[in-house]
Amino acid sequence: MTTSNLQVFDIKRFSTHDGHGIRTTVFFKGCPLRCKWCQNPEGLLPKRQVLYMENKCIHCLSCVHTCQKHGVRFLKDKILLDRNALEDWDKIIDACPTRALQFDSSSYSVSELIQEIKKDESFFRYGGGVTISGGEPFLQPEGLLSLLSACKEEGIHTAIETSLYVDQEWIQKALPTLDQIYADCKVFDSTKHKEWTGVDNSKILENIRYLLTSDKKDQVIIRTPLIPTMTATQENIGQIAAFLSSIYPQTHYEILNYNPLAKSKYAYLDMDYCFEENPKLYSPEVMESFYRVAKENGIQNLIIE
Amino acid sequence: MERIQILKEKMLSQPRYVSIEQALIITRTYKEHENESAQMKRAYALYNALHELEIGIEPEELIVGNRTKGVRYGVVFPESGISWVDRELETISNRPQDKFLVRDEDIITFRKEILPYWKGKSLEDVLRSRAGHEIDAISKVVKINQKDHAQGHICPNVKEWLEKGPSGLQKEAQEHLNDCSDNQRDFYRSIVLVMDGVKDFMMRYHDLLIQESHVYPAHASDMKKVAAICKNLSQRPAQTFHEAVQSLWFLFVILHMESNASSFSPGRLDKTLYPYYKKDIDELRINDQEALEIIECLWLKFNQIVYLRNQNSAKYFAGFPIGFNIAVGGVDEEGNDFCNELSHLFLDAQEDLGLPQPNLSVRLHEHTNEALLRHAVRVVSKGSGMPQFFNDKAIIHEMEKLGISSKDAKDYAIVGCVELTTQGNNLGWSDAAMFNMNKVLELTLNHGRCLITNDQLGPDLGSLSTYETFEDLEVAFQKMMLYFIEKMIPCCEEVEKAHIDILPTAFLSSVIDDCMEKGIDVTRGGAHYNLSGIQMIQVANLADSLAAIKMMVYDQKRIGAKDLETALEHDFQGYEVMRQLLLNRVPKYGNDVEWVDQLGAKWAQFFRDTLRNYTNYRGGLYHSGMYTVSAHVPMGQNVGASADGRLSQTPLADGGLSAVYGRDLKGPTAVLKSVSRLNDDCTTNGGLLNMKFLPEFFKTETGIQKFCNFLRTFVDLEIPHIQFNVVRREDLLAAQKHPEQYSSLTVRVAGYTAYFTELAGDLQNEIIARTSYDNI
């Protein structure tokens, strides 16, 4: 992959929850974290992968007939994939009439992405713009920077959603081209952070400190996704809140309710989800108790939707 | 408001019956005046109906009047159609769409007293004998409308009616009568006569209210007040807001009584009624709460008139779209934003009642006041599908190109569902015909033969496998389009002629500008503007089919022409893989893919441009619209399997501008972009774009704000119309059953969007459980 080409697993237009106005969200592929609850498991690996959606499949076996190295087999009324087989996967996927088989991502040049983003220019006029999400956008740092500056040249409002697990120099370089920054602070305890996300959180906390002391600190929103038994403890929220308010009490902080929808994506990738029994959304009462903890720990700008 | 609740419940609990009361009066009148002209016979029939029809009131009503004593009765109207009534009387109470109860004794009376007189004389029968063969010959491609009922679809000059009242109009007609030519005499006589009936009708309500006020002492004071209003209106024009609203309702009751047609449109009532409202407010005669109560009483009345259609027509226009269309907002005569307290009160009334009528429309433009827009969006979020939105920026300049003055174009209103009209001066004949472009494509691909019946419906220009290039196919398609357009125009003319001969309408003519001055009935071309509108059905399927053929057969050569022909002939049986390729591997209209959208836009333009070569029987222009009411279902039944992967006889895209349901996968902004590629001159008769949203979207102020922004861009993109359905539980249940039809349905929880049909069953159930919406 060259630096100018970006691996993107989705471009979602009319995305209305990732920043102000009507937005186009570009999902960069690849992530250094391995959060147990990841909402976009297809975004984890930097390379493109083959997705199989069983409910779209009509069992026409076009794929089985096209493959040459047993990458796709039909056994007991089921299509089975060997994603590591040395197949011409482009050809196999092209043969699928229903798109039950597809790549999870495509490669775009910056100008191709700008072209896609500009399709909704006329909507951005009333507030809105592009949000870069992932995966982890900073895992493709050079491409990210050129995309961001290209957006600014076009006058497009830019937002990013990042884990902040990235060397600070990249954040410094990106900051002038970013209008809004959503950053996760998932788990405060470093041992638990390593356990649930696979990486140490010291770099993340340092970057949060950097952002919240920068001149863009009011454009930063720190978020914690509530994951039952993992991030969703009073203790964790309290620690995060205290950390943030110690740096900048006016920090914009948002606690996101658990999202039960991610589970179904795991099946497409033959992956296992962290909960066998999918938990439910937290009730408004429980959400309120988390809000209370955050406020008690000094958060002054709690975002509640 | 207790009064409104009581009236609403009373109305909704009443059963719908077929009524032959007026038919008996009409039949007797025609026999008594056998030697008079049609103009006079019709006027006498209306006059007698106004005198004799049984009337009723409810003690709680602040606005009174209906054309039958019971609410929502289906009125048999012999002048327009009688044969179908005879055929369907026994099945009307259990037909699939829009049932009515029928009293056994009425069936006997109908066959004995009414039917024999009208055989061969009604509009339906006359038209059948004059042009039945020609109309039938093209019926699988073109549905010619208004064959067994009056035209309707017109916006009377409400302002003038309120200012003059029946006495003023009668006086004008009388003056003309004293000084007119022989061929104008009956026209003016008919108006003078009818206005006597109108005044009497109003007085009958006065008398009934006074009489009943003794029975309901608790309501007596209100009833006497309403009685006084009826009496005043029978003598002089309206003076107060309450009088104006009552006067307006009398106007529409009588228009329905005269024509028994769909879609008489009140138009821009926030403009027309405002002087009355303002004066009452300024003089402390009324407050906003009282005004709202009067408005809601009127809103209830709009739901009390339905229209009896034949079984086939009920499929095309399902669910009683009677079309009391009210437009609020928009620009004023100078092009500045127009909006006032009434605009908001109308939205409040819609929000309170959530009933199907009136059909409430908000006119948007670049400077629409933010408060009105937000209010309208909030009402949309309640889920009644209203208000719908029209775009001044897309509409006004195109109306001007049709020869409509700038003043009239800026003052446009809507009739029926989405048909555009000027106010008070235009017989737009907006529902002249529906032209099925997809059937034309089918015939082009198949030697002019119908895929379903194998009948030869059009000329043999070849078939898919004989067209060497896509361009050859397009040449043949163009010829086939022209063939049917040429066959359609004379049929439309025959319908207009029959209406002139059989259904002159004195009362309507008195409230349409220029008829009075010219001494010419509106059916005969008396109106200032005379247009005819024809709908093209459906651009989405056409674009998708042409794109599939172009890409798969001609460009990529992935599917053989002969193979596709065979597959279509066999309704894809044994060709499922090919069908899936056509469905999933070719871009579709509605996804902001320019070349696909342009295929639709190109043929919409061709249809519109071709129509402009013709003049209608009244001397006006033909123009085009892109909407269906429910016609995409029966029109789909006429079309065999199509190259977009659609199975034989299944529905076409809904709406008119909308993508095929489930095929717009790039979200609402992409849909708007695609639709904006259709030229606005194709939709001067009206366009219709449907969109679905989940209720979650509107739950927050931010969501409402984003929705407003979305509509601002809708204005900028110059799309003529949009309406929103809020997705309900039933939709999601249907999506579980038929995922293929709902693949574009997205759901959202806690910051994440997914395609509903791609979620696992238990998650789907969870979302369904969360998406309960008050049924209205």
Give an account of the 3D structure.
The complex is a heterodimer of chains A (305) and B (776). In chain A, 32% of the residues lie in helices and 22% in strands. The model of chain A has no long low-confidence stretch (mean pLDDT 93). In chain A, helix 9 (234-247) packs across helix 11. Chain A is of the alpha/beta class and 305 residues long. In chain A, the strands form 3 sheets. In chain A, strands 7-1-2-8-9-10-11-12-13 form a 9-stranded mixed sheet. Chain A has 11 helices and 13 strands. By secondary structure, chain B is α/β, with parallel strands linked by helices. Chain B has a domain at 2-77 and 150-424: Anaerobic Ribonucleotide-triphosphate Reductase Large Chain (Alpha-Beta Barrel), CATH 3.20.70. In chain B, strands 4-5-6-15-14 form a 5-stranded mixed sheet. In chain B, a hairpin with a 4-residue loop joins strand 16 and strand 17. In chain B, helix 3 runs parallel beside helix 8, helix 8 (182-213) runs antiparallel to helix 9 (220-235) and helix 23 (539-555) packs across helix 26. Chain B starts with a helix and ends in a 6-residue tail after the last helix. Chain A binds chain B through residues 12-18, 21-22, 39, 53, 55, 58, 60, 62, 97-99, 119-120, 122-123, 125-128, 256-264, 267, 278, 280-281, 305, and chain B through 576-578, 580-581, 583-585, 592, 666-670, 673, 697, 700, 702-703, 706, 709-710, 712-713, 716-717, 739, 747-754, 757-760, 762-763, 766.
